[in-house]
Amino acid sequence: MGFEFDRDSEVVDNGASTYSAQLSGGWLIGGGLNGGYQLAVIANALRAASPDRPDPVVMSAHFMAAATEGEATIHTRMLREGGRLATLSAELIQNDTHCVSATATYGDAAAMSTDVATMAGPPDIPPVDACLSAELAPPGLRSAAPMLERLDLRLDPSYAGWARDQPSRSGVIQGWLRFADRREPDTRSLLFAVDALPPVTFDLGLPGWAPTIQLTAHVRAIPEPGWLLVRHATRNVAGGMFEEDCDIWDSSRRLVAQSRQLARLPR
Amino acid sequence: MGFEFDRDSEVVDNGASTYSAQLSGGWLIGGGLNGGYQLAVIANALRAASPDRPDPVVMSAHFMAAATEGEATIHTRMLREGGRLATLSAELIQNDTHCVSATATYGDAAAMSTDVATMAGPPDIPPVDACLSAELAPPGLRSAAPMLERLDLRLDPSYAGWARDQPSRSGVIQGWLRFADRREPDTRSLLFAVDALPPVTFDLGLPGWAPTIQLTAHVRAIPEPGWLLVRHATRNVAGGMFEEDCDIWDSSRRLVAQSRQLARLPR
Lengths: 267, 267
Fold this sequence. Notes:
Chain A is mainly β. Chain A has helices at 4-8, 35-49, 139-143, 187-193; strands at 12-13, 18-23, 28-29, 32-33, 55-63, 70-82, 85-94, 97-107, 132-133, 151-155, 172-179, 212-219, 228-233, 237-238, 241-249, 255-264. In chain A, strands 1, 2, 5, 6, 7, 8, 9, 10, 11, 12, 13, 14, 15 and 16 form a 14-stranded antiparallel sheet that branches. In chain A, strands 3-4 form a two-stranded antiparallel sheet.
């Protein structure tokens, strides 16, 4: 039933604040399951554990071991609730390995103040039809990334030269994103969207996947239906690691999510 | 003995991966203990729990309740270690209240790769002697912030107009920072420094302290001795919350730390 993203991120309540999930190989990328997909699964467990405050406001996650296709268990714990926010922790365990440790503050996005005084504006980018579909990616890249089949991703050609060995070396990747089956975005899917594009290191001429060490995402509004505009940029590449910031604007041009991750440089 | 920062952030090993600390009122600001000070205390517990990997690489923290002067307990847990990194969690508990939940990835900063390919450069700022000392802050502000006595903080006058009710409304605060007693910076004190300046909301014409909901800090290098150049900026003010990014450059003009926090707007 329903959309791929929802079907593949379902959790089953096992009682005692513990949930199980069947992680789907459809979200593999570069040999491991996409980190944002794992956050979306964790978010289903946390939403079940926090029914009165169903939306992620901020989630921080440390990725300690690669998760792969198959069963996983998510242990949740309510750390503190009161007022408009609740803070919970979650551990994603697979085959006795602690893969992800996440902590999240949840709230009710529909009840948040509607004031907006944001200074940031969306980046300049060509319209969807003038951007490059991921279907044009090199076959080697696509076969290593079944997740791409689940997305309709249109990359800004200014920062997609890496696909023909001409990276811009700006440390930027940006594009339009939606699910291939037209599932509309919501607060939970934004946790996936902040980690869905190729790593900005592609644009620095460093092919290869970049394992996330830690990622923190802020979800700042319920996104409007339609395309998301996703921009990734890095400013600090050093010591074998790089920081990658992500901004996401919805179809109303509102900045609905921001994230920052620390990742290892590809070898 | 020693410096104020070290003396006030000491922990005592109580066994069973649990530590106690005497939180000092010297780091109060706006009625609560500074969040960065709490991270520095937690970092002492984590360093004791991770002797082979003594430096924070990335720490994420959710602030759930205000901590105040007095005894606190830090429970630590090793989540995963192996290779060059270890990931640990810590809970700071005071009077049976869970104040802070932190997770951190630790490593050995001295053993990290020495490559640097950072694109970011330090911001333009007048020299130290042309900046404004926090000693010039309004008496009402200073009395609410005993922490300022422990710092030598020189604010860029371009973004300090709020002290005379003329905020620049840029959403920026930047300045030179060192400890008043000349304790030199290290990887642990950077966790304090990312949260030491007044909130950027001062520069937006919003006086009042802004409680941090969540903060993630990346520590990217061992800082050189001398002044730190600290820049805070916000781009997204909405829904009663704002994001605040911090960059810290050391005296060699290297970008040694970055952080992002989500905080509540002052009422």
